[in-house]
Design goal:
elongated; Rossmann fold; RNA-binding; alpha/beta
Length: 565
RNA sequence: UGGGGUAUAGCCAAGUCGGUAAGGCACAGGACUUUGACUCCUGCAUUCCCUGGUUCGAGUCCAGGUACCCCAGCCA
């Protein structure tokens, strides 16, 4: 383990539990976890926390982590999601090996065990309608009322359940319920439904079944069948733990995993629930599940975030039972830290301003040598064309600059990175509007490469691109999707999180001028545009059109100073 | 007014047997700088939700409060 890794290697309560279990030789010292998504949507960074936790624990303790699709509700699930989820888990850098499972693999066994429960008198077919079941469940403060069907004979239950399976009854006419305690203060224990009739075909089992088991019944048994030792889930399942344990005690599979709950991830300035994410997509507020502003794994990947950064982030946020909202700045920090190490540097001008170097020979082009990554001595150099007409960033020129402005302004010297030291001699403006059209400079031929042989100090260094030798691009700048740390905080009662969408979450820049070497950039590969941020080519790029995404901007202490004025 | 949880800095979060508050992010200074980036220094909780109690000693133990989150799907 390197020094850096040790820094973020902090313990958490789950690791403590597992370490105690290992030292007491519980489960023969083995650790088997699982990541159990329902294939009814795309994964987001909250799932990444769970994936990193479960797979990470397995790695750390030489165990295994299964990928298991919790596919018990065919109405909402699709194979398309299964494929997307697998891809996301792989992209994050985890490997389930042979341990790919589906709850639907266990439908036969689950059915068999349900019959067992009936025979034990622990489950019964209830013929109440859905709202009758709801009405008799009681409230948070009042106990429920027992179903009139609660004491049906074992024979009758067996027969009815079999007929449910055969498809003899319409949806909603009967369910199988566990017989526990209608007066339990825990609502989950008030004779929960464990099987319901759904006459829909399943994406894996086809039309074999028309009854499907419920989560509470399925999940614990699936865990036990797979020999899971630690079944880690989020806080809202804490109330379900007694039911998890109850089911396993009744069926006795010789394995009783321990359910442990932790707090799900919330991030500032974004939303994480499947429902809200779906609304953003369906309402056209974003371009799709992989819109680079989305906190989905697909969005994050397209944006250019790296799996390494995500894993580091998940390590740093820790694991606890506290409801919390993590500052998105931490995620961005992790992305910058990772990209700073590996992203090749390049020059790109986002909002171009033409500069003419008056004393530079017309038509001359010379190649200047630039470092690919000053922070990585092994990254080598590249040659960048320089000529009489170049573009610089509009922000890097001010006709009448404030005190600490170290960039280009009339009469002041500034360095063009890797090229020459220049001095602004003239500003050309539109006579009508006063807009600055171009700037003229002279260069000092003695300063090739940017060094001053006489040792004179030049504070500012700016990036540039040769006008005749650059590519035109569209650059998409992304900002927080919402204007509020907590998007659910709305002004008036009628409002929703959608009212807090940041109108500047996407800013499209056209006519950006990029260093020619970017022509061959592969989609998704991160580059640092020096002094700007990290960018990657977007999949929307074509032969005719180059599109880059801004992954994350560089920190900008000048912007802070300037905005304080 | 039932049950289950959680409270340590602006945001995360560690804190085993009670021994005198880790770390990261953010923020603020400074150094360095051919990226106002990076890196490097420095600062940032006399106090752990509150009130009592036990103790030589309490974030840790005890008692009583308070605040917030979750639960009444034939969703997971």
């Amino acid at each position: 383990m390197t020094e850096k890794e040790r820094v973020v290697d902090s313990s958490n309560f789950i690791r403590n539990i597992i370490e105690e279990d290992i030292s007491s030789n519980k489960n023969d010292g083995k650790v088997v976890t699982r990541f159990p998504p329902e294939p009814n949507g795309y994964l987001h960074i909250g799932h990444a926390k769970s994936i990193c936790l479960n797979f990470g624990l397995a790695q750390r303790y030489n165990g295994k982590c299964h990928l298991r699709f919790d596919d018990t509700n065919p109405e909402t699930e699709k194979v398309e999601y299964i494929e997307a989820i697998k891809e996301d888990v792989k992209w994050l850098g985890f490997d389930w090996g042979d341990n790919l499972f589906y709850a639907s693999d266990y439908f036969d066994k689950l059915y068999e065990l349900a019959i067992d429960l009936i025979k034990q008198g622990k489950a019964y077919v209830c013929s109440l309608e859905a709202d009758q079941i709801r009405e008799t469940r009681g409230t948070l403060t009042e106990p429920g009322i027992e179903s009139p069907y609660r004491y049906r004979s074992v024979e009758e239950n067996l027969e009815l359940f079999e007929r449910m399976r055969q498809g003899e009854f319409p949806e909603g006419s009967h369910v199988l319920r566990a017989k526990i305690d209608m007066a339990s203060p825990n609502m989950n224990m008030r004779d929960p439904v464990i099987y319901r009739i759904k006459k829909v075909s399943h994406h894996r089992t086809g039309d074999k079944w028309c009854i499907y088991p419920m989560y509470d019944y399925t999940h614990c048994i699936s865990d036990a069948l797979e020999g899971i030792t630690h079944s880690i889930c989020t806080l809202e399942f804490e109330d379900h733990r007694p039911l998890y344990d109850w089911v396993l005690e009744q069926v006795d599979l010789g394995c009783h995993p321990q359910q442990i709950e932790f707090a799900r991830l919330n991030l500032s300035y974004t939303v994480m629930s499947k429902r809200k994410l779906l609304r953003l997509v369906e309402g056209g507020y974003v371009s799709g599940w992989d819109d680079p502003r989305m906190p989905t794994i697909a969005g994050i990947r397209r944006r250019g975030y790296t799996p390494e950064a995500i894993r580091d982030f998940c390590e740093r946020i820790g694991v606890a039972k506290n409801n919390s909202i993590v500052d998105i700045a931490l995620l961005e920090h992790c992305v910058r830290e990772d990209l700073n190490q590996k992203a090749p540097r390049v020059m790109g001008v986002l909002e171009p301003l033409k500069v003419v170097i008056e004393n530079y020979p017309e038509g001359q082009v010379e190649m200047v040598e630039a470092l690919n990554n000053p922070n990585d001595p092994d990254s080598g150099t590249r040659m960048v064309p320089f000529s009489r007409e170049i573009y610089i960033e509009r922000d890097d020129f001010m006709e009448d600059p404030p005190k600490k402005f170290h960039r280009m302004s009339p009469g002041k010297e500034v360095r063009l990175r890797y090229a020459y030291i220049v001095e602004c001699t003239k500003v050309v403006k539109d006579e009508q509007t006063g807009e600055i059209l171009e700037v003229h400079c002279t260069y000092d031929p003695e300063t090739r490469g940017g060094a001053a042989p006489d040792g004179r100090k030049v504070r500012g260094t700016i990036h540039w691109v040769s006008a005749a030798d650059c590519i035109d691009a569209e650059v998409r700048l992304y900002n927080n999707l919402f204007t509020k740390e907590n998007p659910d905080e709305v002004e008036d009662e009628e409002g929703t999180f959608l009212d807090n969408i940041n109108p500047e979450s996407l800013v499209v820049l056209k006519g950006c001028k990029l260093e020619k070497s970017l022509l061959e950039a592969e989609i998704g590969k991160a580059y640092q545009f020096e002094r700007q941020g990290y960018f990657c080519k977007d999949k929307d790029s074509t032969e005719e059109r180059t599109v880059f995404n801004r992954i994350v901007p560089l920190k900008d202490s000048w912007a802070k100073i300037a905005s304080n004025k």
